[in-house]
């Protein structure tokens, strides 16, 4: 535990000391929220019936719909890119010093995953600063629900990032692989657009995409779809189902939890085989 805490603390301290990274973490989410949220809200409103829409569809708010996805995007990218430090440590020789220390490699791997998860959780919570400006009402109980869910999702993505980082030797290669992997998964997770009306082959990819269930957890907690009219839930793509079974929040937590365990085991095994 002492070794795990040391690695965990190092990554968290590095994050808070890097002011450019701390401030820059707002840049992409803010850009997506303003450009896609405010800019595309008119187009999405027209697709849903525009100003002529009546009934529950008139309540469709694209900015409100996007906000849980923006939180998800922040957690995803921060968590998976946190493993970049592993590649950088290998490039600058610091990893060699850690590997030859008495600390077990399992402790190093778990410490790295926990450090990345903590940083991603903090950045995800910072996105709540935008809440007063977009008209969403978030209660304290919602925040208490979001914290463990964010950490669970971040833990899974940090494990995936560590698994990738242990197989690569350069920072440029890591960033390229992660971008090719994460952005298609992000766009097919329902974070930025409703998942309704997709072709069958794309809908299949959506259902096997782990980020889909992660984003849907954030939506269920923040948007409270059970309080919406059925037509509005359908329009916003909030009726996520597999084999005609509507997935519940506990089931999504179970899916992401199992993925977290699976990937952290793979990442730990792969990390333990790194040559010093």
UniProtKB/TrEMBL annotation:
<feature type="transmembrane region" description="Helical">
    <location>
        <begin position="253"/>
        <end position="271"/>
    </location>
</feature>
<protein>
    <recommendedName>
        <fullName>Transport permease protein</fullName>
    </recommendedName>
</protein>
<feature type="transmembrane region" description="Helical">
    <location>
        <begin position="142"/>
        <end position="164"/>
    </location>
</feature>
<dbReference type="InterPro" id="IPR047817">
    <property type="entry name" value="ABC2_TM_bact-type"/>
</dbReference>
<keyword id="KW-0472">Membrane</keyword>
<dbReference type="InterPro" id="IPR013525">
    <property type="entry name" value="ABC2_TM"/>
</dbReference>
<feature type="domain" description="ABC transmembrane type-2">
    <location>
        <begin position="20"/>
        <end position="274"/>
    </location>
</feature>
<keyword id="KW-0812">Transmembrane</keyword>
<dbReference type="GO" id="GO:0043190">
    <property type="term" value="C:ATP-binding cassette (ABC) transporter complex"/>
</dbReference>
<keyword id="KW-1003">Cell membrane</keyword>
<feature type="transmembrane region" description="Helical">
    <location>
        <begin position="21"/>
        <end position="45"/>
    </location>
</feature>
<dbReference type="InterPro" id="IPR000412">
    <property type="entry name" value="ABC_2_transport"/>
</dbReference>
<dbReference type="InterPro" id="IPR051784">
    <property type="entry name" value="Nod_factor_ABC_transporter"/>
</dbReference>
<feature type="transmembrane region" description="Helical">
    <location>
        <begin position="176"/>
        <end position="195"/>
    </location>
</feature>
<dbReference type="Pfam" id="PF01061">
    <property type="entry name" value="ABC2_membrane"/>
</dbReference>
<feature type="transmembrane region" description="Helical">
    <location>
        <begin position="108"/>
        <end position="136"/>
    </location>
</feature>
<dbReference type="GO" id="GO:0140359">
    <property type="term" value="F:ABC-type transporter activity"/>
</dbReference>
<keyword id="KW-0813">Transport</keyword>
<feature type="transmembrane region" description="Helical">
    <location>
        <begin position="65"/>
        <end position="87"/>
    </location>
</feature>
<comment type="similarity">
    <text>Belongs to the ABC-2 integral membrane protein family.</text>
</comment>
<keyword id="KW-1133">Transmembrane helix</keyword>
